[in-house]
Amino acid sequence: MDNTKVSLEVEAGSWLTETGIETTVYIGHVDMPQVVTIESFEPLIDKALESYGFGDKMANMHKEEVEQLLATLKNAYEYAERRVHEIGFHESTLSHKKIKPGKRC
User: Fold this and answer.
1) Residues forming a β-bridge with 15
2) Full-prediction pTM beyond 0.85?
3) Helix or strand or coil: residue 39?
4) What tens digit of pLDDT does each residue of 78-99 get?
5) Is residue 33 one of the residues assigned to a domain?
6) How far is C-alpha 59 from the chain's CA centre?
7) What is the C-alpha to C-alpha distance for residues 97 and 23, in angstroms, rounded to an integer?
8) What is the per-residue pLDDT for 77?
C-alpha cells in the first residue's frame, strides 16, 4: 500500500473594495488567484433584506434584525469615514459623490 501523503495549500480571503466584496482563492504556491469573485453591495443587501420577508413584504417578527442590520451598515460607514480621516485624508482630497437611486453601490 502506498503511504504517500499529498498536501495542497488553499488560501482564501475577502476584501472590501469600492465596488463590493472581492473574494480570492489561491490553490498551491502561485502568484495569481485561481478564483476571483466580486459581489456588489446592492445584491448582498437585497439578499439580506429578502431573507427577512415573505414575497415583497417585510415580516414584523424580523423588525429587530432589520434595524440591527441597518445600524451595523451605518456604523461600518462611520468607522470607515473616521479611519479615512485618521489615516490622513482630508475633505479637500475626497470627493463625496452622491449615488443616484438605481446606481450600483
Assistant:
1) 22
2) no
3) strand
4) 999 999 989 887 665 666 555 4
5) yes
6) 25
7) 26
8) 95
